[in-house]
Amino acid sequence: MFGKEFQRKYALTEQGVRNTKKGAFWTVVVNLVVMGGAGILYLVMSGFMGALTEGSPLPGATPVIGGVLLFAILSFLTHLQQYRATYGLVYNEVKATRLSLAERLRKLPLGYFGKRDLADLTETIMGDVNRMEHVWSHVLGYLYGAYISTAIIAVCLFLYDWRLAIACLWGVPVAFGLLFGSRKIAARSAERTKKAAVRVSDGIQEALENVREIRATNQEERYLQGLNQKIDAHEKTTIRGELGIGIFVNAASVIMRLGVATTILTGANLILSGKIDFMLLFLFLLVITRIYAPFDQSLALIAEMLVSKVSANRMMEIYDTPIAEGTEVFEPKGHDIVFDHVGFAYDEKDVLHDVSFTAREGEVTALVGPSGSGKSTCARLSARLWDITEGSIRVGGVDISTVDPEVLLRDYSMVFQDVVLFDDTVMENIRLGKRGATDEEVRAAAKAANCEEFVKRLPQGYDTPIGENGAKLSGGERQRISIARALLKDAPIVLLDEATASLDVENETRVQGALSRLLAGKTVLVIAHRMRTVEAADKIVVLADGQVAEEGTPTQLMAKKGLFHHMVELQRQSAAWQLG
Ligand code: ADP
């Protein structure tokens, strides 16, 4: 009952399964104690009935009061245990699950994040786990406990009188049959509600990201209208979904309660024909009110469980996505990067075909080509941010697809356009390059990357918080921080995406100076945008439509008068035109 299947179904950790078992156990005990209370009542009533009808002595006050007290104490203690086992323990499960999801996400290949957007993933880690938290703490233990205790009690009832037992319990399987029949409908509406919720959070996130554009273009009104529609749609699907489930749950509850009527009718018949006495019917009626209570509770909870399935599935999808694995030993001979007949596709979209080139240690290899030709893709693949579909990529002779990405990345510094900065101080943002670097080392790297000059102007110098994703810094300053980070790391391979867009001329010169310090002696793969870099490169790989069109030194390629020559001429003309 509580095996692997159960664990997957409710996205539980191993500890979670153990806790649920505990919760179910104490729920069974509580339900049996409550039944014991009914038993005490039955005994007392029998005593009185005997005194009334057969003139036997009245039951003494001591055993009656003793029985009631015993029941009260047992009831209190077992409820307390049940509370601890269901609510208390399970709250840890939330923390454990969020951590394990986050840990798993960290190890997933980057390609995964293209398929599921950020709002969606955040919704899983926060929203889905929240929904499951309620299921874990309030539902599972109770529900499975109720199944077990009802089975025990049903056996007892059958032993007492099978006819009354059937009259009393027939509604239970029918009610649950009805609910399981409605599962598909519920699951579908839950999926729809979920999607509507993601659209709302997507809409909000989009607005936050583009708040400047929206204001600048006077689109507030239109944007708000759009958001309103999304929220309305979410509300509607939610209401419709709950209504649908509500109908089934209530029908199931009514059917179960019909058992009271059939028990009375059957009981009356059996009494009239002299087959049972009135007290037995009384006992069944006592039990019946109690036996429905946990079921009623679980009926209400079943609706929630059906909804939670979607959440559990989304969590399991993260657990089920294979992580990029590899050995933790990476001992390359030198750091030449070799692309050997590499083919690659983002999901369905073919991007690279039969790409072969070598980027040598101590040289700058420039990737050149029209936008969309696959330059960034090559740079990312060389660090195993994705796994390729054909051919191989080797670093110092080692096939990188056999190396654990975390280990591999220790040998890489990346200075990309989209520098990721954290809402922390300048000091800590640079220190990310090398864990445990001293303040002195950080300052030295910052100085070499020409950060000193703007850091001095910040109110608290290196201890100034830089805002979320470096909001308080300019593009050039952000880039210099990321160069400082790379300098501090001092990895043998540097991947560089030149982006001139955000830099003014003065900044550009500063960044250039910092870069030449960073690149000396390394294997450098640069996505080149500036003519200056291209001309200074040791080797140029021209990409077109995901294939290598030309390859050689700048002089060789200029002499060849091919694609590269053409691009250089175009740039010269537009530069001349700009100056003119
Ligand atoms: P470049 O850097 O030369 O501009 P890219 O390597 O960024 O080219 O892109 C090559 C092709 O792959 C383009 O057609 C682009 O649309 C596509 N592409 C890039 N990144 C992704 C991604 N994450 N998912 C799907 N397609 C992508």
Radius of gyration: 35 Å
Fraction in helix: 55-70%
Count of beta strands: 10
Bound ligand species: adenosine-5'-diphosphate
Work out the helix count: 21
| Shape type | elongated
Strand order of the largest sheet: 6-7-8-3-9-10
> Strand portion, in percent?
5-15%
Largest sheet: 6 strands, mixed
Contiguous uncertain segments of 5+ residues: none
In whole angstroms, the N-to-C terminal distance is 80 Å
Given helix and strand content, the structural type is alpha/beta
Can you walk through the features of this model?
The protein is α/β, with parallel strands linked by helices. Helices cover 66% and strands 10% of the residues. The protein contains 21 helices and 10 strands. The chain has helices at 4-9, 14-54, 61-107, 111-115, 118-160, 162-169, 171-181, 183-209, 211-216, 220-272, 278-320, 375-381, 405-409, 426-431, 439-448, 452-457, 475-489, 505-519, 531-536, 554-560, 563-579, and strands at residues 337-346, 349-359, 364-368, 390-395, 398-399, 412-415, 493-497, 523-527, 539-544, 547-552. A 6-stranded mixed β-sheet has the order 6-7-8-3-9-10, with helices on both faces. Strands 2-1-4-5 form a 4-stranded antiparallel β-sheet, covered by helices on one side. Strand 7, helix 18 and strand 8 form a beta-alpha-beta unit. Helix 6 (162-169) runs antiparallel to helix 10 (220-272), helix 8 packs across helix 11 and helix 17 runs parallel beside helix 18 (505-519). It is elongated. Adenosine-5'-diphosphate is lined by residues 114, 346, 349, 351, 369, 371-377.
